[in-house]
Amino acid sequence: MSLPVLRLLPKADRRLRAGHLWIYSNEVDVAQTPLKGFSAGEQVWVENSAGKGMGVAYVNPNTLICARLISRDAKYPLSKSLLVHRLNLALSLREKAFSKPYYRLVYGEADGLSGLVVDRFGDYLVVQISTAGMELQRQAIVEALVQVVKPMAILFKNDGKFRAVEGLAEYVEDAYGSMPDQVELEENGVRFLAPVREGQKTGWFYDHRLNRARVQHYAPGLKVLDVFSYVGGWGVQAAAAGAASVTCVDASALALQQVAANAQLNGVGERVQTLKGDAFETMKQLINEGERYDMVILDPPAFIQRRKDIANGEQAYQRANQLAMRLLAKDGLLVSASCSMHLQTERLLDMVRATGRATDRHVVLLERGGQGADHPVHAAISETEYLKSLLFRVTPAF
């Protein structure tokens, strides 16, 4: 397979040689290989400024990340064959890490498939494609998944804002078989129904699996508040582990209906209640009503999606943690989580520490958590490490 050449500027190959997979538009020698000469999703052979081959990539001339390396060998372009090979590697890791088939099967760059995410719910797969290069491989992706996993159904959940950056339309459609509106999964011994068609992202967030397991450890007998609860991943697991009561707060009526259903599924419906409303306003209301909790869980959406959002996003995280701390009983536990890649763990720790000083509390960090083995971190791509979860004990100041 003969591919057109994409030539890099001098020294622009350093990150690729270090293992990174992305090429930025300002690293391309556009005098020799104009980006406008390529079509979105087209595969190319990347060369450094001296003409040395770096690997096969697919391009999008209209984006800042204009190319993503997919293979270091010219013999292996992106195709069904390569997809099958990478899927088998990804599957072998998940089968080593997990005893049951509920996990993120493909996590983009970390599994050598930039632009592709696949979540597995037993016999059902939900696929998200975020790049033009992967979009051109739609049929090959389906065929490869059928060959490797043999699922009953595959759903394309391609409705995220990230697709607009790549010039891609949004859609949700069955790619193979017939996908139910809800599918069952099990996490840390607790059963859930995930709304794969109408829910957020793929319908479930597997990334906090290990952190939710730690909450189960501390939850027995506690009064728990789960803020930004979505479908109850944290709260229902706390109740299943023996929490005395759990209150889940979310702005989505659909999500809270699912919380109730998931609580009933696990026989803890009488100990789980829901509150619909803006998280910040609801926390303020609970403070004014004199409510206090033994554990408050904060797992908000990404307040910082781009670098330019850092200032406003940090303010949002600070406000959320201040309100949460005011809702804690005298001896309480605070779980402060973030899925914002641009928020460093130490910065989140600083925010909680500062909140403790401002509210006259003694704050100690008990545990740090991150993403599980189905969200492996690519050793050369720091962007693949985004999740953090901090568990604090908060008591009156000494």
TrEMBL record:
<keyword id="KW-0808">Transferase</keyword>
<dbReference type="Pfam" id="PF10672">
    <property type="entry name" value="Methyltrans_SAM"/>
</dbReference>
<comment type="similarity">
    <text>Belongs to the methyltransferase superfamily. RlmI family.</text>
</comment>
<dbReference type="InterPro" id="IPR019614">
    <property type="entry name" value="SAM-dep_methyl-trfase"/>
</dbReference>
<dbReference type="InterPro" id="IPR015947">
    <property type="entry name" value="PUA-like_sf"/>
</dbReference>
<keyword id="KW-0489">Methyltransferase</keyword>
<dbReference type="InterPro" id="IPR029063">
    <property type="entry name" value="SAM-dependent_MTases_sf"/>
</dbReference>
<dbReference type="GO" id="GO:0008168">
    <property type="term" value="F:methyltransferase activity"/>
</dbReference>
<dbReference type="Pfam" id="PF17785">
    <property type="entry name" value="PUA_3"/>
</dbReference>
<dbReference type="InterPro" id="IPR036974">
    <property type="entry name" value="PUA_sf"/>
</dbReference>
<feature type="domain" description="S-adenosylmethionine-dependent methyltransferase">
    <location>
        <begin position="182"/>
        <end position="392"/>
    </location>
</feature>
<feature type="domain" description="RlmI-like PUA">
    <location>
        <begin position="6"/>
        <end position="72"/>
    </location>
</feature>
<keyword id="KW-0949">S-adenosyl-L-methionine</keyword>
<dbReference type="InterPro" id="IPR041532">
    <property type="entry name" value="RlmI-like_PUA"/>
</dbReference>
<dbReference type="GO" id="GO:0032259">
    <property type="term" value="P:methylation"/>
</dbReference>
<keyword id="KW-0698">rRNA processing</keyword>
<protein>
    <submittedName>
        <fullName>Class I SAM-dependent rRNA methyltransferase</fullName>
        <ecNumber>2.1.1.-</ecNumber>
    </submittedName>
</protein>
<keyword id="KW-0963">Cytoplasm</keyword>
